[in-house]
Amino acid sequence: MKVILRQDFEALGKIGEVVMVKDGYARNYLIPRSIAYKATASSLRALEEEKKQHDHQEQKKFKDAEKLGVELEKLSVTIPMKVGEDDKLFGSVTSQMIADALKEKGFTVDKRTIELEEPIKTLGIFEIPVKLHTKVSAKAKVWVVRE
User: Fold this and answer.
1) At 88, is the secondary structure helix, strand, or coil?
2) Which of 35, 36, 43, 108 could hold 3 in an S-S bridge, CB 3.0 to 4.6 Å?
3) From CA 54, how far away is CA 126, in angstroms rounded?
């Protein structure tokens, strides 16, 4: 059966592609989960409209991410931590702590978008990359200071 993909699907292809799949796979999995349409003339027209809406939403998300990225580049947050001997931290600074500090400044950033290679365990100033969109990334300045 020929189906038209409504969304990107790793095993089959990208949105809008017409692919050939087994009848049962299409009827029992792809169509009920709104991953694909049965390939007909009317479904092609419906898909074109969905594509336009999807592209419009992606452009809006991209523009919002760019604006947020510019704001984050200007911002610096301070995280006070308890310190032991030789300026070693008790515990470490995690992406959740950074996300909470950004939220206090008025920026809603998901902790999963903060790309810490490993938790911060020393005092200092750090440039932390934040992935806001697939094409937009920004660096937030984090100051880890004594409590």
Assistant:
1) strand
2) 36
3) 36
Q: How many CB atoms lie within 10 A of CB 144?
A: 23
Name the residue range of residue 58's domain. Answer: 2-62
Which residue is it, tokens 């792809």? Answer: 30
Per 3-state DSSP, the chain is made up of helix, strand and coil in percentages (nearest 5) of 40, 30, 30
Q: Which residue stretches of the chain are H helix?
A: 23-25, 41-74, 95-104
Within this chain, do residues 58 and 128 fall inside the same structural domain, yes or no? no
Its pTM stands at 0.69
| Over residues 67-77, mean pLDDT | 91
**Backbone φ and ψ of 32, nearest 5°:** -60, -30
For residue 4, which of 25, 20, 24 has the smallest C-alpha distance?
20
